[in-house]
From TrEMBL:
InterPro entries: Anthracycline_SecMetBiosynth, Glyas_Bleomycin-R_OHBP_Dase, Glyoxalase_6, VOC_core. This is VOC family protein. It holds the Pfam family Glyoxalase_6. Residues 140-255 form the VOC domain.
Length: 257
């Protein structure tokens, strides 16, 4: 990801947002975990705050409407130059549009889509707000990955939506594709087969950088969160899968960079 002063290439994940029931307790959790501070966001989005790290915006947290029983989940936003045109393309490629397109004040224009396998994502047309700043530091989102049963069909959806080049990871027992723009991997699709329970829909997973994955999972437990998969080593660093007190699942990673 680039700095917020630069416009992102269409299709690049540029922002992550979380809709919750308890905004105050959620801010306390992430503030204690990542050192985030908070500033009010666009009024058009209802109760909403932007999380800041050293005065740089890294994520958003909003209030779920009381009358809507929606899952509490981190949602990545993909950059677009035209949210309305992208919304039409979502429908054309076999997805649906659940929210918008709508203006978020002077910040930009957005929509929430559902892909061909049911995973929720956002699109963001930047005006004053370009997205995540200072990505790569501890406390910032560094990767977004779609968890699904198999990559082939949904990969076609995203390649229809944006001009991604799909680069498969060559492995007999690992169904994984990176979505690339201008020769750079910007997101991944992980086909996990029957490991994904039948009562769990495909979903996007956001990875946040941490200084120490093992210490972070201890802190997450202390703050009322849960460890879903213990820290383990991978080709991209030491990582763990966790959930916050409201059940929003995310991953932490110490990339060692």
């Amino acid at each position: 990801m680039t700095e917020s002063t630069a416009r992102h290439t269409p299709g690049t994940p540029c922002w992550v947002s979380l809709m919750v029931h308890g905004m105050a307790t959620t801010q306390e959790f992430y503030g204690a975990l990542f050192g985030w501070e908070f500033r009010p966001g666009p009024e058009q989005l209802g109760p909403y705050v932007r999380a800041l790290l050293d005065e740089q915006e890294v994520a958003g947290i909003g209030q779920l409407p009381r009358d809507r029983h929606l899952p509490v989940a981190w949602t990545p936003y993909l950059a677009t130059d035209n949210a309305d045109a992208t919304a039409e393309t979502i429908r054309h490629c076999g997805g649906t549009v659940g929210v918008g397109p709508l203006d978020a004040g002077e910040a930009g224009r957005m929509a929430i889509g559902v892909d061909s396998v049911g995973a929720v994502f956002g699109v963001w047309q930047a005006a004053e707000h370009h997205g995540v700043s200072g990505a790569g530091r501890p406390g910032t989102p560094v990767w977004n990955e779609l968890i699904t049963r198999e990559t082939a069909s949904v990969g076609k959806f995203y390649s229809c939506l944006f001009e991604y080049h799909e680069e498969p990871v060559v492995s007999a027992d690992f169904d994984y594709v990176t979505l690339q723009l201008d020769g750079r991997a910007v997101a991944g699709i992980h086909g996990v087969g029957e490991v994904l329970p039948r009562d769990h829909d495909p979903h996007w997973m956001t990875y946040f950088e941490v200084e120490d994955a093992d210490r972070a999972v201890v802190r997450i437990t202390e703050l009322g969160g849960h460890v879903l998969r213990a820290p383990r080593d991978s080709a991209h660093g030491r990582l763990a899968t966790v959930a916050d007190p409201e059940g929003a699942v995310f991953s932490i990673v110490h990339s060692g960079a």
